[in-house]
Amino acid sequence: MSIQKSTRKIIVRSFGLKYLEHYPRLPAVDSKTLFFMTDVRFLPDPCQNIPKPGDDEEVYQKIINQPEISRFLALETVIVINQRAQYVHVADFSTLELNYFCYAGYHRSVAVARYIHEKLKETGRGKNLGQLELVHLTKDIRQAELNTLS
After folding, report:
1. Domain tally, the chain
2. What is the pTM for the complete model shown?
3. Quick check: 64 and 70 in contact, CB under 8 A?
4. Residue 60 sits in which domain range?
5. pLDDT at 29 exceeding the cut of 70
6. Angle formed at CA 22 by CA 115 and CA 31, multiple of 5 degrees
């Protein structure tokens, strides 16, 4: 019993609760999708007043190098790589969705999603599952909002 590599995928997604009205529904979860949601609002936002997103290199480094965030990322990486990515194989799921959200979906969730996506690429977990996708669902909405304020 095995699914071909090309039919499996991991989607790493970031979004902000503030903008979910623009996306009334996240993509539908079916019986072949393993879906995880992680709330990262408890993490400090060291870039709260910086009008650049969490995947901007300077902002990204500032976020992931915060001690509290760095500890969280170390634990989350172990959980994702050693446990969640394995579930797809064991239970014969075709898709693993890892969703990270914060209030605006602009700094913390974007940086966390990018970090996890990069770790999956580094370890080869994404290759083992076929496609590896990174989606920032609400980052562009926040960017447009900031542009109109300046």
Report:
1. 1
2. 0.85
3. yes
4. 5-149
5. no
6. 65
